[in-house]
Design goal:
It is a single chain. This protein has twelve helices and 13 strands. By secondary structure, it is α/β, with parallel strands linked by helices. It has two domains: 115 residues, Rossmann fold; 127 residues, Hypothetical Protein Tm841, Chain: A,domain 3 (2-Layer Sandwich). It has a six-stranded mixed β-sheet with strand order 10-9-8-13-11-12. The protein has a four-stranded parallel β-sheet with strand order 2-1-6-7, sandwiched between helices. Helix 3 packs parallel to helix 4 and helix 5 packs antiparallel against helix 6.
């Protein structure tokens, strides 16, 4: 069985090979060309380019041809295919892929799941699919179980700077300037397939406390651990060390899995953002 997802999951090419999945690219294009995103070092390079850019890069949905090439190869081999896409509230990829599947000779061999998620929670859904495949589950069984699992996924975090929301035209320049002076930090969440603003807090300490409060309110299934994501490079990663240790102590965790957030979502968050991803019971 083939499993396909896109690069909004922030799964690298090496990880995709280890998982035995196909990875389809969502292109990220700056004024002077496309940003690479297949490897971990590409993530750090992306934020360097982002900080230097006058305008935000453009992200485009995956090439239909790239999907079709994989699907036709699978159809020729009579293989079943499971496709997990970026949330339909953030991209038209899901609808496009559904149309492509309808054009196939054997569409009954393919199922498409709208992850309703992105980055780390999309990754968790893909990992679950790989686990179910290894257990020998049928395509229909996998879809049923993944649909239930998807509704237990929660992604939320804090944006460090309003600059990139301003560049993206989501807030006026005047509001961004005032917010920067006041050290305002927007709190975000993926809810009902879209990225929602849960409000704002002032200062990094208040933001951390707010995210912990959000964790407190969720009945987290700690068998999946707690995932933290960060936007930026080595400097932003190093800045999280104390926060990670404090979070481990607070929730009596042996470890917290840390992941860099790539450019598909990071374009709109900017460097310095912190994201939590958990599975609830």
């Amino acid at each position: 069985m083939r499993i396909i997802t896109d690069t909004s999951s922030d799964i690298t090419l090496t990880e995709a090979q280890d998982l035995g999945i196909d990875l389809v690219k969502i292109a990220i294009t700056f004024e002077d060309g496309e940003a690479p995103q297949g490897h971990l070092e590409d993530f750090e390079t992306f934020y360097q380019l982002l900080e230097q850019a006058k305008e935000l890069p453009k992200t485009s949905q995956p090439s239909p041809k790239e999907y079709l090439d994989i699907l036709k190869d699978a159809q020729n081999k009579n293989e079943e295919v499971l496709i997990i896409t970026l949330s339909s509230g953030l991209s038209s990829t899901y609808n496009t892929v559904c149309i492509l599947v309808e054009s196939l000779d054997k569409p009954e061999l393919v199922r498409v799941i709208d992850s309703k998620q992105a980055i780390m929670t999309q990754r968790l859904l893909v990992n679950k699919a790989v686990e179910l495949r290894a257990q020998g589950k049928s395509l229909h069984e996998m879809v049923d179980e993944l649909t239930v699992f998807r509704d237990k996924l929660h992604l939320f975090g804090c944006i460090d700077s309003l600059v990139y929301l301003k560049k993206g035209g989501r807030i006026p320049a005047s509001l961004a300037a005032i917010g920067t002076v006041l050290k305002v930090k927007p709190i975000i969440e993926i809810k009902d397939t879209v990225l929602s603003n849960l409000g704002t807090v002032r200062g990094t300490k208040a933001a951390k406390k707010h995210l912990w409060t959000k964790l407190d309110d969720l009945d987290v299934d700690l068998s999946y651990g707690v995932l933290m994501g960060y936007t930026g490079g080595l400097q932003e990663k190093e800045a999280l060390k104390t926060y990670i240790e404090d979070t481990k102590t607070r929730y009596k965790l042996d470890e917290i899995k840390l992941y860099p957030v790539g450019g598909v979502i990071g374009t709109h968050l900017g460097p310095g953002s912190i994201i939590f991803a958990v599975v609830t019971k």
